[in-house]
Structure formats: C-alpha cells, structure tokens
Amino acid sequence: MIVRLTGTLVEVLPTHVVLDVNGIGYELGVSANTAASLPPAGEAGVTLLTRLIVREDAMELYGFSTREERALFDRLVAISGVGPKLALSVLSTFKPQELATVVATEDVGRMSQVSGVGKKKAQRLLVELEGVFQKDAELRSLVGLSQPSHGDVVASVPALPVQAEATDALLSMGFTSQEVELALQGHEEAGATTIQQVLSYALKRLGSGA
After folding, report:
1. Do 108 and 123 meet the contact criterion of CB atoms below 8 Å apart?
2. What's the pTM?
3. Nearest to 162 by CA among 138, 184, 130, 133
C-alpha cells in the first residue's frame, strides 16, 4: 500500500497532479483544495499523503495535503454509491473543517452545492457522515474533541465552553443574541452535549421558530 510520496511537482491541475519520485512520475487525483495548497510545478521535496484504490480494471492513486482530508476521503468512498470522483468533488467544495460544520448543522442546502449531489443524496450523505467526526481519531480535532491517552480518566466536558462555542457559531451565522439564547435553552436536558449536537439542536429550534 502506497500511503505517502515525496518528490518534485511536475504538473499541478485542479483535478490531478504529477509527482516525480526518483525519476518515476506518479499521477494522483486530488481535490481542488489540495491543488490550491501546493506550490507551483517545479518545486522539489513536496510530500503528499496518498490512497491507492485497486479496481478490477485499474489502479488509481489519490493525493491529499492533510490527514483529515484523507480520512474523509476514506469515509466517503465507504458510502454506498459514492466513488472516488464524487468524494473528491465533496472535498473540493469543502475543506475538512467546513464539512464538519455542514454535517453538524445538517445543512442540506450547502451539501447540495457539491457537483453531482442533489437534495436527496445530500440528505443521505449527511446521515452517513453523522458521528464520523467524533468516532474517527484523525477527525475528532475538527469538532474540538480529543482522544484521551491510555490510562487517563475521562472527565465529563463542562457545558459552558460548548455552549459558548455554539453561541459564537450561531451569532456568526447572523442570528441575534436573543434568538441564540432561546434556541439553546434545554439543550442539556435534550442530551446535546457536544458542539455538533448543540448546534444541531439549536438550528432545529430556530427552524421551527424556537
């Protein structure tokens, strides 16, 4: 399994790059976000994390600028009906942190902005990705969660920091302080303790008039 390559960039396009590694040119499919993060062609010592997809009729290599993006690619292609092309389309539309927000807020409208994704598929993707950012160690940091070290005592997360973070996020979306305060009422009783759950709870209340 090829998981990482370091070499000289020969070509950089929004959909793929060519990396020369010791005289061998590797073509890697990439997201537009990864392509935009790379230096211009000719740059040496460029490292890309990779994932090799083996099919009956082909072997395809994909490159990623971050571990989070590669982890999301793995999660996306594991969904029935989602191939590498659609996975890269999602990752071209959203950076990992942005996708975490879209999933947390169950934003069907934004997910539908992905090329090739209609409303019905957007809803299914959101359902399939629910919980991914908490369960995957490489994605947990995107929602402010961290995995306890072996032997550590797992303490309950104080409610105030999560509520404060959710308040800031909702205010940045354009809601008023009064709307946010009303929307967050009762989230603890409803079992919403993580930032994802609190945002989802609040947005549902805002959507129904709180």
Report:
1. yes
2. 0.67
3. 184
